[in-house]
Amino acid sequence: MVRVILPQHLRTLARVEGEVSLDVVGSVTQGAVLDALEARYPALRGTIRDHTTKRRRPFIRFFACEEDLSHEPADAVLPEVVATGEEVLLIVGAMAGG
């Protein structure tokens, strides 16, 4: 069971509160987690990653175990503590400005 925390605007869109628990079949990768998330909450399709290319949206970041995993390949295996649900995968809406 993988635990995911979404930013508030995506929790509102998915109509969930707090963290989300997902069953991921096979290797626990960013791509597999996002596939499971989008399958369970279809309203999130295209919000975290591009609908066609499956690439992460520019202002979305992924964190786990106090590490920025945003630039890791989508098929890279997530840390074991994330795969087992000990740690959460944070999906964060980054901010920019000047």
Topology:
Blueprint: E1 2-5, H1 8-14, E2 20-22, H2 30-40, E3 60-64, E4 67-68, H3 80-83, E5 88-93
Parallel strand pairs: 1-5
Antiparallel strand pairs: 1-2, 3-4, 3-5
Give a brief description.
By secondary structure, the protein is an alpha+beta fold. It is 22% helix and 20% strand.
Give your account of this protein's structure:
With 98 residues, the chain is an alpha+beta fold. It has one domain (2-93): Roll (Ubiquitin-like (UB roll)). The protein contains three helices and five strands; from the N terminus they run βαβαββαβ. It has a five-stranded mixed beta sheet with strand order 2-1-5-3-4. The longest helix has 11 residues, at 30-40. The chain is globular.
Overall mean pLDDT stands at 93
| SSE pattern | EHEHEEHE
Which class in CATH terms?
A: Alpha Beta
The proportion of residues forming helix, as a percent range, comes to 10-25%
Structural class by helix and strand composition: alpha+beta
Task: Say which CATH homologous superfamily is assigned.
Answer: Beta-grasp domain
CATH architecture: Roll
Question: What shape does the CA trace take?
Answer: globular
- Regarding quaternary structure, how should these chains be classified? single chain
Task: Count structural domains.
Answer: 1
User: Strand arrangement, largest sheet?
Assistant: 2-1-5-3-4
Q: Provide the gyration radius in Å.
A: 12 Å
Distance between the termini: 40 Å
Low-confidence parts lasting 5 or more residues at pLDDT below 50?
none
**What would the CATH topology be?**
Ubiquitin-like (UB roll)
Percent strand equals 15-25%
Query: Biggest sheet, open or closed, and with what strands and sense?
Result: 5 strands, mixed
Number of separate strands: 5
